[in-house]
Design brief:
Helix content of chain A: 25-40%
Shape of chain B: rod-shaped
CATH superfamily of chain A: Dynein light chain 2a, cytoplasmic
Distance between the termini of chain B: 54 Å
Number of domains of chain B: 2
CATH class of chain A: Alpha Beta
CATH class of the largest domain in chain B: Mainly Beta
Structural class of chain B: alpha+beta
CATH topology of the largest domain in chain B: Barwin-like endoglucanases
Radius of gyration of chain B: 34 Å
Distance between the termini of chain A: 29 Å
Largest sheet of chain A: 8 strands, antiparallel
Strand order of the largest sheet of chain A: 1-2-3-5-4-8-7-6
Oligomer: heterodimer
Largest interface: A-B, 33 and 31 residues
Helix content of chain B: 25-40%
Number of strands of chain B: 13
Radius of gyration of chain A: 15 Å
Order of helices and strands of chain A: EEEHEEHEEEH
Number of strands of chain A: 8
Number of helices of chain B: 9
Strand order of the largest sheet of chain B: 8-12-9-11-10-13
């Protein structure tokens, strides 16, 4: 376990979870979702997740060398889904699922927090969605 | 100004299929098939702004550009409060549907991600082959042959010299139709002239110095072949009777370049027997073009 702190920025690594926060202020929703994601991450076939709030982000990914690629995809998924929804006159996005040839990504929009869960294609994503939203 | 794009007439089958979406899944309120540049191929909701379709394609592509880590994007489902969007891409075309969340999810996904992409793929397979087949009139070699042979059906009088007939027009016509059906061949034949067809009256040749496997042909015709094929030397001809019997043999120009040799082919006894020919009959003669010449060109 390692930790690094500064007055405005904290990066904490708890086992495999890395948390990046730009302020010390607690965000209960972020913390609660983070706790749920830690549990989801333990599920077989779930490769990891990224959660991004207004001032904090956390991730836990099995394939550490692909963190950047997963992060880019997660961000782009959020932006593109908003654009697609806008073009097709769909007001609010709750979730999105991108199915690739090898993996799939579940994107969930919970208030200010954007969550991406990466998993194998045979995993029941609706079960994961329910667990995130509880 | 917003450019509005309507489905074009060539996409009518897609339009029809999309129209059926509403019958199969009435909860599907919007369905649109479009290209990357925003061209709408089919839409079940009247006209749609081209810019809008373009933005949709761009947004989908942005995800696809970053999707290598998951093996590329196969399809995307977005769930809103009351509705859901399905987007997929097949062969450079995008399909987006908007349906109520009350809709049978399995049915909507089957239509969006399975049925329509399959139809688009099938249409793509059918259309190029249709294009390939449409302009081609299959070369009717039988009919050509008939044309070539009907002319000299009348037995000419022995006293008259039959006109040797070069038929460049005949040989060009089938070339054109083949060009359409076989572009590969077209290229080689554009560079390489088809062997001209000539008609000759048979004259028997005999003597000690006469080779039994060689015919002698009007020197003017041989000169024309030389003009046509340049440095490449033709060493054999194909001699064919009006009954369809043919033989391939060596040839040389008739020595006596007098007017009597015009339109005449001198054939030794052995070849006459093979072709079951007698003097005064007509034959069709073509130079034999070695296969390697055509390959080189």
């Amino acid at each position: 376990m390692s930790s690094k702190s500064s007055p405005n920025q904290t990066e904490t690594s708890l086992t495999n979870v890395a948390v990046i926060s730009s302020s010390d202020a607690d965000d209960p929703a972020f913390a609660s979702l983070g706790a749920s994601l830690v549990e989801i991450r333990k599920m077989k076939g779930v490769l990891g997740y990224i959660i991004r709030g207004n001032s904090s982000a956390a991730f836990d990914l099995a394939e550490g060398d692909k963190i950047t690629q997963f992060a880019f995809l997660s961000y782009q998924l959020c932006e593109s889904c908003l654009e697609i929804a806008k073009q097709l006159s769909v007001a609010t996005i709750e979730s999105a699922l991108v199915e690739g040839k090898s993996l799939k990504v579940l994107f969930v929009n919970v208030g200010e927090n954007k969550i991406s869960v990466f998993m194998e294609k045979n995993i029941d994503h609706s079960g994961i969605l329910k667990r995130v939203l509880i | 100004m917003t450019e509005v794009s309507s489905p074009n007439s060539s996409s009518t089958p897609l339009q029809t299929i999309l129209g059926e979406f509403r019958n199969i899944s009435p909860e599907t309120t919007k369905a649109v098939i479009f290209k990357e540049d925003g061209e709408i191929l089919a839409c079940n909701e009247g006209d749609i702004a081209k810019d809008r379709a373009k933005n949709l394609a761009a947004a989908f592509d942005e995800i696809a550009n970053h999707s290598e880590v998951i093996g590329g994007v196969e399809n995307l489902t977005i769930q809103g409060v009351n509705s859901q969007i399905n987007v997929t891409t097949t062969n450079g075309r995008y399909l987006a549907t908007v349906s109520s969340r009350m809709a049978d999810e399995k049915r909507v996904k089957a239509l969006t991600f399975v049925v329509l992409p399959t139809i688009i793929k099938l249409m793509d397979q059918i259309e190029p082959s249709k294009l390939e087949n449409e302009p081609t009139d299959p070369p009717n070699s039988e009919a050509e042959k008939e044309k070539e042979t009907t002319k000299p059906q009348e037995e000419p009088k022995h006293t008259e010299q039959p006109k040797h007939t070069e038929q460049p027009k005949h040989t060009e016509q089938p070339k054109h139709t083949e060009q359409l059906s076989n572009p590969h061949r077209m290229l080689s034949e554009q560079n390489f002239p088809k062997p001209p067809v000539n008609q000759f009256m048979v004259e028997k040749i005999a003597g000690l110095l006469v080779a039994s496997d060689m015919v002698r042909i009007d020197a003017d015709i041989v000169a024309k072949w030389v003009d046509l094929y340049g440095d490449r030397e033709i060493s054999q001809v194909n001699v064919e009777t009006l009954e369809g019997r043919s033989v391939r043999c060596k040839f040389r120009p008739v020595r006596e370049a007098d007017s009597k040799a015009k339109g005449i082919i001198q054939i030794p006894e052995r070849i006459l027997q093979t072709l079951r020919l007698v003097e005064g009959k007509l034959v069709i003669v073509k130079p034999v073009i070695p296969a390697e010449w055509e390959e080189k060109s």
